[in-house]
Design brief:
The chain has 302 residues and is α+β, with helices and mostly antiparallel strands. The chain has 10 helices and 9 strands.
């Protein structure tokens, strides 16, 4: 029996649901496939949709950005039975990031709103506005996100052809508004400034694994205290954070068939393809060459 291979995107495209079959919530998939060259690609939107599944766990993410607002307390840690985030918690999962969430009381009761989106425009707006990734952000006014989803939904469904500039502007305005709200309430999003500096430094220097001593000196902390604080606020170790960033970039580069695996290895900080392939397979349970073959085969089937 052939070995089961888990490669993103592997999530199920649920069907759109007619309004008359819902109790005020909305869900719409637009049929847009993943496109590594996309500028801004809205793939699906859900507004106040009940959480039907007790646990959603995607170790390799969905291949695109998933931005989700939980209207009620939610579990974001598999080992924790009680809610780990309060109501109106917003979280941004980038491509390739592991996702886990679950209702805390019962199915069909707790609503969540979400968007699957991809493209260079998304990454640019997130980076320029320094929006936190993979950590819950509490927003006081849920309409900040709901209005974005409704406006995007209207543009995508009420016109024969959606205007890409309007879609991009809507997302940019939302990202800037979210950044302004976060800075107004708490300039550092509740994360110590020293840790934000370290995270930014890792994002910029991911091609080399900065020594812990160097990072501890930058943060004015001991090695052990920095390691503990980083894991406490970002939910991962420093080395795992760097590896995850490398693998996320490598995953997207593999969609570009003009870039050879050896070149990808160098771009993400590995001196040779063997070390890169070993880490990629450890992360995604498949080697880079096999992953690319599956992408090509999937494309040819279409």
């Amino acid at each position: 029996m052939p070995r089961s291979i888990a490669i993103p995107p592997g999530f199920v495209m649920w069907k759109s649901v007619p309004p008359e079959q819902t109790n005020g919530w909305q869900r719409q998939w637009f049929g847009n496939e993943l496109d590594a060259t996309a500028v801004f690609n809205v793939r699906g939107i859900g507004i106040r949709e009940p959480m039907f599944n007790a646990d959603v766990h995607r170790p390799n993410g969905t291949g695109d950005w998933l931005i989700m607002l939980f209207h009620e307390p939610v579990r974001l840690r598999r080992a924790q039975k009680e809610p780990s985030a309060g109501p109106n918690s917003l979280i941004l999962w980038p491509p390739g990031a592991a996702q886990y969430y679950s209702w805390s009381r019962a199915a069909n009761l707790e609503p969540h709103s979400w968007i699957h989106v991809e493209g260079r425009w998304v990454a640019t707006q997130v980076e320029e506005n320094r929006l936190p990734l993979e950590v819950p952000i509490t927003i006081e006014d849920e309409s900040l996100f709901i209005n974005l989803l409704q406006q995007l939904m209207n543009e995508m469904t009420q016109h024969e052809v959606a205007d890409p500039i309007i879609l991009q502007n809507l997302f940019q305005n939302w990202a800037r508004s979210l950044a302004r709200v976060l800075r107004t309430r708490d300039p550092q999003h509740g994360i110590p400034p020293a840790l934000l500096i370290i995270r930014d430094y890792l994002d910029e220097h991911f091609m080399r694994m900065p020594p812990l001593d160097e990072l501890a000196e930058m943060a004015c902390m001991s090695r052990s205290h920095l390691s503990h604080q980083f894991r406490e606020h970002f939910g991962t170790t420093i080395s795992s954070y760097v590896i995850r960033k490398r693998m996320s970039i490598a995953q997207r580069l593999l969609y570009d068939l003009s870039v050879r695996p050896g070149e990808i290895a160098k771009r993400v900080g590995y001196p040779d393809i063997y070390q890169f392939s070993k880490q990629f397979k450890k992360t995604f349970a498949i080697c880079p060459s096999e992953y690319r073959k599956q992408l090509v085969a999937k494309h040819e089937v279409r």
